[in-house]
Design goal:
73% of the residues lie in helices and 0% in strands. It is built from 13 helices and no strands. α2 packs across α13 and α3 crosses α7. The longest helix has 62 residues. The N terminus is likely disordered. It comes from Brachybacterium sacelli. Its main location: membrane. Belongs to the binding-protein-dependent transport system permease family. Pfam families: BPD_transp_1 (PF00528).
Length: 306
Amino acid sequence: MTESTAVTGGLATGPSRSGAGTGIAERQARRRRRDRIRRWSWGVPLWILALVFLLPFAWMISTSLKPDLEAFRIPMQWIPDEPRWENYTEVLFGENSILVAFWNSVFVALLRVLGELTTATLAGYAFAKLRFPGRGKVFIAYLATSLIPAQLLLVPRFVYFQELGLYDTLWALILPGMFTVLGTFLMRQYFVSQPDEFAEAARLDGAGEFQIFSRIYLPNATSMISALAILTFVWSWNDYETPLVFLSSPETFTLPMGLTNFTDENGAMAAGLSMAAAVISIIPILLVFLVFQRRFVRAMTESALK
C-alpha cells in the first residue's frame, strides 16, 4: 500500500513539475524579449544620434581628399573618384607646413598637463587632508575666482606678461595653464572621499605628510589623474583665443593658429588643405583618449556615484 501510494504520488508530481518548468521558461523568454525590445528602443536612437555627430568628421575627411573646387559641390560626393593625397603632403612639407605649429602645440600641451597635475594634486590634497586655520574660507575664495570670465583677464595678463618679457613666447600659454580651479576642485573632491584612517595608520608608523600623499593617496588617484590629464590636454590643444592674444610670430604659433594659414589666391579658405590639416590635428587627441579612455570613464563614473 505504501509503495503504491509512493508510485502514484511520483506519477502525479512529474507532470506538475514539468508544467512549472514550462511556466518559468515562458516567463524567462518574455523577460528576454522585453529586454531585447528595451535595448533596441534605446540603441537605435543613440546610433542615429552618433551618426549625426560623426557626419562633420566624415565631411572633413572627405573634403581633405578633394581639390578646393569640389569641396562644396552639391550633391556632395562622399568618396572622391581620385583622392588628392597631395593635400596632406602640402600641409606637412609645403610652404605653410604645420609641423612647427604641431610641435609647439605638443610642447605646450605636455608642459601644461605636467604642471596642472602637479599643482592640482598637491593643492587638492592640502585642501582635503591637511588641517590649517581658514582652510574652508581659502578654498571658497579660490573657487570664487572661477566666476571671473577669462576674457576679462586677457588685458591684465597681456600687460603683465609684456612687462615680464614673456609676450610672444610659449611660456605665456604654459604658465597660466598650470594652475586651474577646476583641477584643484576635482582632486580635492577625490581626496575628500578617501578614508582618513589610511593617513592615521601611516602617521603611527612614522610616515611624513609627503610620504602619506605620495605613497598612499596618490597611487589610488590614477583614474582621476588620467581624467584630468585628458581634459587638460584637450583644452590646451584646442585653445585658440590665448595664442591669438599672446603670440604674434609665425614660428611661435600653435596648431589652431597654424590652421588659418591655408588660403587661396583670393584670401578665402582653401578647403582641401584646411581639412587635411584639421584631420592631422585631431590625431593626438584620439591617441590620448584611446590610451586613457578606461580610466577616464571610470573616473567619471566614480565622480557621478559620489
